[in-house]
Amino acid sequence: MKGSNVHDTREAWLREGTNLLRPHFRSCGYELPENIRFAIAFPSTGRKGKRVGECWHSSTSDDSTYEIFIRADLWEPDKVLAVLIKELVHTLLPPDAGHGQLFKTAAMRIGLEGPMRDAKPGPMLKENLQKLADKLGPLPHAHLNIDLQPMTTRGSVASPIDLPKKQATRYRKAECTEKDCGFTVRVAAAHVKNIGPPHCPVHGAMTVDMPSDDIEEDEDVTAEAA
Known about the structure:
Elements: H1 10-27, E1 36-41, E2 53-56, E3 66-71, H2 77-90, H3 101-110, E4 112-113, E5 120-121, H4 123-136, E6 172-176, E7 184-187, H5 189-194, E8 199-200, E9 204-208, E10 224-225
Parallel strand pairs: 1-3
Antiparallel strand pairs: 2-3, 4-5, 6-7, 6-9, 7-10, 8-9
């Protein structure tokens, strides 16, 4: 049966998960620090990076607190706990330990296996984390849909609602209105809006392929011959 615990925040869920993991760490010969903060967000590599978790050593914090971040598009409780327990191993070690021998020794005692940079729970630990997830109850977080492709529609659920407008190509193509002339130049859309279109030396004002209104154009540009 799933747990009946209700946590109002993701940090509360992660903190309780850590507290429930303390006996396991203790049985392996380690004592987790108390000064840890948690967040489900994006690590320093951003949404395009492959890092699923990150631990910042207490020495980097002004109040000497460890900071653990778990990637925001993870949402399955057992998988979140698998990342959490790996990051908790880092809190046991010096800030320069990385994923070297000190980390490997601690990680394997805890029950992690595989390449240390991408260590995963072994069978027994995986089963225990699933039981722990059931005991914790629902994680107050859902899968964050992240589209790594260029946006095609503003306001899509795959992007932040305050995402800055995309800057269009710096120059827009201007063509002579006479069909057989062939004279073209490129010019900033802002200059066309503020001053007017460029002129063909023979036939006068040219037509300009202007961007849509919802795309910003760099104003610090000048016209150039094609």
